[in-house]
């Protein structure tokens, strides 16, 4: 079964959704699943480097206080914790995710897409790493198993894998993706959002009928 996942590295629900799906797939040990990550940008207009953490950025954008922004995010932090994830929005620096998406496509070409997604998610939400910093991206990509020189090429040439990212986003628009994460099972069933494990389990069981 092929599962396509439209996702953005900067999306807190995408990491949660990844964990929920993984838990669901573990209930089908005798089945084979092919996971393909697809690019999506929640906000392509963000400057490459805002220099602001999530709390501050959203406070300014919504015209509220940082304290109110922190309060708004408490539910997300708790939900992440419920699936074993430790979110630190005070460290997560908002930036444009385009370069990270291009590196993910390099990873996909090397059959390392899932590894790269996991490393980027953890680096951003848990470790507060800057996913628009060249040396940081190189370090994380090498950790996923990518070749340093190939990553450098992607960083130097902004057109490398750009079309792949754009095609993913265009395809998302064509099939009606309103937000992420968005999961498509064998192009027959779709699950929108970081749904409970049961939603994924039920979808897979329905597919197997």
How do the strands and helices of this protein lay out in sequence?
Blueprint: E1 2-7, H1 12-25, E2 34-39, H2 54-62, H3 66-82, H4 98-109, H5 113-126, H6 134-144, H7 148-156, H8 162-174, E3 182-185, E4 189-192, H9 197-208
Parallel strand pairs: 1-2
Antiparallel strand pairs: 1-3, 3-4
Helix pairs in contact: 1-9, 2-3, 4-5, 4-7, 5-6, 6-7
Helix content: 40-55%
Task: Decide which structural class fits the backbone.
Answer: alpha+beta
**Which spans of ≥5 residues are poorly predicted at pLDDT below 50?**
none
What is the straight-line distance between the termini? 13 Å
Counted by DSSP, the helix tally is: 9
What strand line-up does the widest sheet have? 2-1-3-4
Query: Roughly what fraction of the amino acids lie in strands?
Result: 5-15%
User: What is the CATH H-level superfamily?
Assistant: Glutaredoxin
Shape: globular
Rg of Cα set = 17 Å
CATH topology: Glutaredoxin
CATH architecture: 3-Layer(aba) Sandwich
Q: Give the count of structural domains.
A: 1
Quickly list its features:
53% helix; Thioredoxin-like_sf; 209 residues; alpha+beta; DsbA family oxidoreductase; Glutaredoxin; oxidoreductase activity; single chain
Would you kindly provide a written description of the structure presented here, covering whatever features stand out?
There is one protein chain. With 209 residues, the protein is an alpha+beta fold. It has one domain (2-208): Glutaredoxin (3-Layer(aba) Sandwich), CATH 3.40.30.10. It is built from nine helices and four strands; from the N terminus they run βαβαααααααββα. The protein has helices at 12-25, 54-62, 66-82, 98-109, 113-126, 134-144, 148-156, 162-174, 197-208; strands at 2-7, 34-39, 182-185, 189-192. It has a four-stranded mixed sheet, sandwiched between helices. Helix 1 links the parallel strand 1 (2-7) and strand 2. Helix 2 packs across helix 3, helix 4 runs antiparallel to helix 5 and helix 4 crosses helix 7 (148-156). The radius of gyration is 17 Å and the shape is globular. GO terms for molecular function: oxidoreductase activity. Residues 3-204 form the DSBA-like thioredoxin domain. InterPro entries: DSBA-like_thioredoxin_dom, Thioredoxin-like_sf. It comes from Flavobacterium pectinovorum. This is DsbA family oxidoreductase.
């Amino acid at each position: 079964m092929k599962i396509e996942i439209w996702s953005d590295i900067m999306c807190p629900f995408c990491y949660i959704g990844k964990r929920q799906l993984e838990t669901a797939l573990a209930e089908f040990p005798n089945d084979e699943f092919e996971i393909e990550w697809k690019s999506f940008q929640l906000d392509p207009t963000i400057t490459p480097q805002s220099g602001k953490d999530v709390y501050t950025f959203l406070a300014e954008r919504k015209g509220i206080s940082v304290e109110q922004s922190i309060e708004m995010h408490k539910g997300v932090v708790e939900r992440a914790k419920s699936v074993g994830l430790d979110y630190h929005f005070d460290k997560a620096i908002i930036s444009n995710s385009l370069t990270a998406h291009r590196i993910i496509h390099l990873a996909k070409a090397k059959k390392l897409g899932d590894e790269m997604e996991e490393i980027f998610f953890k680096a951003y939400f848990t470790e507060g790493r800057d996913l628009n910093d060249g040396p940081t991206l190189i370090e994380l990509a090498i950790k996923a198993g990518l070749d340093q020189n190939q990553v450098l090429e992607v960083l130097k040439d902004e057109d490398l894998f750009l079309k792949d990212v754009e095609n993913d986003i265009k395809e998302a628009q064509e099939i009606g993706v309103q937000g992420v994460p968005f999961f498509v099972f064998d192009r027959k069933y779709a699950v929108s959002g970081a749904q409970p494990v049961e939603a994924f389990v039920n979808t897979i069981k329905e597919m197997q009928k």
